[in-house]
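Recap from last week: sequence in, structure out.
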Amino acid sequence: MSTLRGAGWVKLVPPMSKAPRGTGHAVAAGFLGWTLDAFDFFVVIFMYDHLARDFHVEKSALLWATTATLAFRPVGALIFGMLADRYGRRVPLIANVIYFSAVEVACGFAPNYPVFFVLRCLYGIGMGGEWGVGASLAMEHAPPRWRGLFSGILQSGYSVGYLLAAVAAHYVLPTLGWRWMFWIGGIPALLALYVRTHVPESEAWKQHRAPSLGAIFKTAGEHWKLFLYLVTLMTLFMFLSHGTQDLYPDFLKNEHKLGQTTVADIAILYNLGAIIGAALFGHLSEKIGRRRSILAALGLALAMIPAWSFGGSLAVLALGAFALQMGVQGAWGIIPAHLNELAPDSVRGLVPGLAYQMGILIAAPTSNIEHALRDAFGYRWALAGFEIAVIVALAVVTWLGSEKKGKVFVTVPAE
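Predicted structure tokens:
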């Protein structure tokens, strides 16, 4: 299929049976970046009690530190997204990885709560920049017919990071203490070297490169309706994931009286479910479409809420959490492909990432909301009721939206 562009004809690249050079490295870079970023974020939720004790503050203060991390993520998405659309995906991604790794290590040296709070805000900027740049780089390299699967693999990095944080909580926290949980967060800096030496620049970016930062803002502004829809979608997705994850270890400890290592083991199990779900539903989205696959995953999550929240035994809780996170992260596994396909070509580094992080800004108080609901309705109904409402709303918003499955990102001259 050919189309007229500029002074000559160009051919839209059809779905490829073979991935172009660098696809594996690009997807690996996005996956590893999101894995290590998520690890650095989630180590905190396993240490609320330790941090509150050593910093002499209430646990609610640590919840606000987590909220602040989430709230600063749009700043990173804006900065690194603009740089990615103007100057390419690789260099901003390298700078982002070095930045968030350095801040994470610094958190391990925090002498008191005010310093720790500021560092977690700074960390939020780095976390906010990684997803948009890494996702655009990976999705622009992926062949259209494999994009759903690669999308699921990329997004599963979030669950792998959570899983690694749970492993660290099981083995590192009890033996070396909480500061080492942050110091090992410096390991992601090595990813910058990998990106520098193995990942090629995106051909799609080269073709659609914005001539200036002003042009980036202009193009994004022309698509404000799409942007508002994506922000709404991402807000509900953030309520879905953070509402089922951030307080769940604390819920298991306080409501079900489980020990630290048991909680860590359950977290490892349900993150394995999340990884499976992301790849499974991401691949399914190539068969039945992005929106239908999201709805199927949400249906699974909804069905598992009774076991996840009200389970009467350790086995029921663990299996409920496993299957629920298959659904939650199954829906999430489709998002990198879905958002990058919907985004305008010249602002693909900015719009998906900024919408993603604006959603987290709006949903940042999720843990605080659930904590307040716990005081009014009890911990079990606080989590269950909140997530039932979120899933229903998200299903409606998803179905009312559009999709561009298989959108072609790269064109080549006609022969």
